[in-house]
Batch of 2 targets.
Target 1
Amino acid sequence: MSKEGERVTFAVIGGSQAHKFIQGGHISRERLGSRETPFGPCGVIYLAKAKEASFYFLPRHGEKSYSIGAPFVNYRANIYALKELGVKRILAWSGPGALSRKFSPGDLVIVDDLLDETKTRQTSFFQSRGLGFIRQNPVFCPTLRSVLKEVLEEVGTHFIPGGTYVATEGPRLETPAEVRKFALLGGDFVGQTVVPEVFLARELEMCYAVLCYVTNFAEGIVEREFREGVLFEGLSTKQEQAEVAKALNLFPEIMLQVAGRLPQVENICHCQESMLRYKKRGDIGENWREWLVP
Ligand SMILES: [Zn+2]
């Protein structure tokens, strides 16, 4: 239970349907707005207040609708702003496509590995600094993944406890040949976010994990006729969209439960010491803002 005035150290970065989370009456919230950072303004941040715990909420793609496509999100500004607010742990959500028929739209997944197939994104804070040679195994924070797993078990929903997320550049969807390539490389899901969020969070010593809900089958996995003027142009059926909506309806409850548990959870991870080697060597001090300045 969080006490009045207690420091908020947990944030949720919401994916495609996050604006509905904001507009729905699920959780009382205060709009803090955007913040200036050395990388430009970040997305709009809310403070979600619940009896379980308070947490920051940042709808990655915009607060009113899906208005910022994945390649155009200012990832560095978002992560910087959350760090500045005192955030130590970030749970993001993302709605990728499935790269095989092993999975179905609406499935919840706590992914545990990543293939970075993005092309033009700024994936580091440390330009011209020689910093950031950081191990990426585990890619996602084990502490957050374990709490998420407990919460999903308690909520009583079916979920998949691991899988490899392939991050592409977007905003276009993938070609059938790309989908075959990603599956051959060991990918299970394909989406357009998570990178560089996960890498940037680790550079600033924050825990980061992502909860995925499968949105559709990726191109060529199932046969789908092209339909003009509808979501995904026919790639996704009405029934599948209903399954996705059902999964998304669980998100407010899941986020609240995770937020409520985290203050009592001890870290089983090394995310918050990722820059220790550089500190020991005297390359950087404790003030993380100075790490970014050449
Ligand atoms: Zn961690």
Target 2
Amino acid sequence: MKSTIVSGGKRIKRGGAGGSQIAMENRKIAVVGAGDMGHGIAELFAVSGFQVTLMDKFPQAIEKAKARVSASLAKMVERGKLTREQADSAFARMSFTGDMGAAMSGAGLVVEAVPESLELKKSVFKEIDSLAPRDAILASNTSNIKITDLAAATSRPERVVGMHFFNPPMVMKLVEVIPGEQTHPEVAREVVEVCGALGRTPVRVQKDSPGFIVNRINAADTLFFCLLLDRQVATPPQIDSFAKSQGLPMGPYELLDFVGVDIGADSLAYFSKALSPEYGKGKTFASMVKEGRLGKKTGRGFYDWSTGRADIPKVDPTDKVSIMDIFALEINESVKLIEEGVASPEDIEKGVVLGMNRPFGPITVAKDLSNAEVKSKLEELASKFDCAVFAPARAIAEGKLRDAVDGRLAKAEDAPAKQAPKDQTAASGEEVVKLEKLAGGVARVTISRPKLNLISAQVLDRLDSIVAELTADREVRAVVVTGAGPVFCAGADLSQFFGTPAAFMDFARKGARTLRKLSEMPKITIAVMKGYALGGGLELALSCDVRVAAEDVEVGFPELSRGLVPAWSGSQRLPRLLGVSQASFLILTSQRIKGKRAHEIGIVNQLAQGDPDEFAVKLAGELASNQAPVAAMLAKSLINKGSEASMDEGLEMEAMAAGILFATEDLKEGISAFLGKRKPEFKGR
Ligand SMILES: NC(=O)c1ccc[n+]([C@@H]2O[C@H](COP(=O)([O-])OP(=O)(O)OC[C@H]3O[C@@H](n4cnc5c(N)ncnc54)[C@H](O)[C@@H]3O)[C@@H](O)[C@H]2O)c1
């Protein structure tokens, strides 16, 4: 089943079986911040067929952006890259505004490109979050800032992602796609697909980390070039001359002048806070910023730019710097990225080649060098500049450079982590599933795990013991099952599925067993479907008696698209609930549906009015006081067992249940309250 994001007349394929249903059908793109990057990003979207609104707080920035886009489109026509009609229709797909509300209206994807300040970006994200449609993806073009920190300013961290374009976006092919700690994998996948539709090469960063791939590697270089000046090892023209003698089109200082010395200084300041104080050791760049020597934009930096070009004195290349210094530093950062699980060697290579415009990257270079060469160069640099950033990464110190760049290091080090379920060491059972006994015979069970409340083996164990405890508790009559935060549960924790087939089968059996116990618990259970109820999460909901849902919850079984089947009773419960036809469609296509549709076809019993958790607790309170507990227990049993029995057997079970109830005090109370037109007070006996 394929679906499409429709973008201004151009249809873009997205999603194979199980493709995400993130609602971007006919949805426009909003770009916030119309500066160097924002105007180029917006233009790229428009040229690729999307409707775009470019927003900036400052009217003069909007005017400038309009002029820049027009000039760029005209140039593309001149160069034969677009026809006049194509350029005109791209421009017609763009709108410009100073009003954030207008920009957000109807947006399916928002790309933030305001200046690189954590505080500013957080406040902009907060504003965007309050105005953008609930299902919109919020992306940041930040160069360095951890996406998790920006996501924390919103109420939808699972829909926040990094989308790091390179300058100029119309030319540079690379886009780093960075999931924050809570980003839903489907959101990152969707953004990867959008990059494809823009004709860009996305590199998916595996773990949120300052500077991601390219700028992390860049930061070590930047620190090195700053320390060279601090220690007066050589002058900018001598070092730039050396760089050009090595075949680079621009020297590092000329380049820094071009992009802004403040960018280099800010990046070192950010890394000194976010990664290591050692990045704070470089001084020259920060003092140039204080003096207003920012480079081209202020007319003076390392060089004079008053004519619009850098006036670089002709000098001989220095012999105090060698290309091996740069190679060693970049290889070192690459190995750290591999060790930290931020990126694979292949993605690092691709990122550096495309993002830094290099013919080859540090991984290729590392394969031609010996561990000893790289290690001794790094030790020399670390000691010369008294800087721990330059000290050899662990793998290099241990002689495992080749393992690291060949991808063997990551595998060897991953293995123990994958065998031990992460949350068993990180959090106690009580923390991963919380049990609260609320007033009025209601209990609440809350799955609380980072990353969308995924169900691990530990969660199953804890659920198992909670079911036993609640079964024995006569005070509890109705149980709300929910997830912490905005998401119910996005499925099983697949990071634990690395064992033998037998272990995998055990995990499937364990899940099905636990959910069966939940479904047979003699209490009325209510699932609160919000955010995502996918895979194992949907199976959890199907194991409850009543399902209430937010209208926009995403519901589905993505299993087939991941090479799995619903293995915690979903393949059995869904056909029994909906009939074979509807169930087959949902399972075999992995299509996701929204809560509203799930309600229409009968998965959801009630759409929540207002907050779904509050709605469910209120409903549970009503059921706990209005429904006779023993009757509820028997009714559940009749429904569960009846679906597996013949009609005759079912009718016989019904008669026996009626016989049992005849002897209960609650039956007498129920009838007398009905006749006396009062509310019954059931005792559960
Ligand atoms: N310039 C680059 O080479 C480059 C490359 C990749 C990523 N980035 C990142 O992209 C982002 C933007 O960088 P840039 O170079 O385009 O900056 P810029 O200064 O050229 O543009 C930023 C724009 O944001 C606008 N702005 C400021 N506050 C705003 C607000 N509250 N609401 C709306 N608009 C606001 C400004 O008016 C300005 O037009 C930064 O995070 C930067 O790190 C830059």
